[in-house]
Write a structure and sequence with these properties.
This protein is of the alpha+beta class. It contains 6 helices and 5 strands, in the order ββαβββααααα. It binds FE2/S2 (inorganic) cluster (2 copies).
Length: 157
């Protein structure tokens, strides 16, 4: 089976496994985190054809032929995505375990709705939990990102 991840095609083993396991174990994409494993925390969020999905709930086969984006495809240490930069600038994390999921969900949100209200942000990010309770800073980071000129350049390239 071929998976299209971060713009590259990967041949992966086909027995029934979650997309989360395939990303981490076969492709070494450790930025996709495992939290609850039952679709409740959002730590494992990836974008599939632009939509945020819990990779712990998805069989890898279900994502075949779709565009999968993980945090590794969003930016790099040398060249952060504006959403990542906003999270960094606003201190929108403590342990950062939840951050890849929040960043990917924010990228999807801003693609769909470039100027979300506070309530729209809260609603869209409701499936992502932060055990460190960084919610106020996360909300601020999403608002900062939504107002940045840089974000308009990189979203929906
Ligand atoms: S690990 Fe997938 S939603 Fe929690
Ligand atoms: S920063 Fe620790 S879980 Fe969110």
């Amino acid at each position: 089976m071929i998976l299209n991840v971060n713009g590259s095609k990967h041949e992966v083993r086909t027995e029934t496994r979650t997309l989360l396991d395939v990303l981490r174990e076969d492709l070494g994409l450790m930025g996709t985190k495992e939290g609850c494993s039952v679709g409740m925390c959002g730590a494992c969020t990836v974008l599939v054809d632009g939509k945020p999905l819990s990779s712990c709930l998805l069989l890898a086969e279900q994502a075949a032929g779709m565009e999968i984006l993980t945090i590794e495809g969003v930016g790099s240490a040398e060249n952060l995505h504006p959403v990542q930069q906003a999270f960094l600038d606003e201190g929108a994390f403590q342990c950062a375990y939840c951050t890849p999921g929040f960043v990917l969900t924010t990228v999807a949100l801003l693609n769909e709705n470039p100027s979300p209200s506070d309530n729209e942000i809260r609603e869209y990010l409701a499936g992502n939990l932060c055990r460190c309770g960084s919610y106020q800073n996360i909300l601020r980071a999403v608002k900062v990102a939504s107002k940045s000129e840089a974000v308009k350049v990189v979203l929906k390239p």
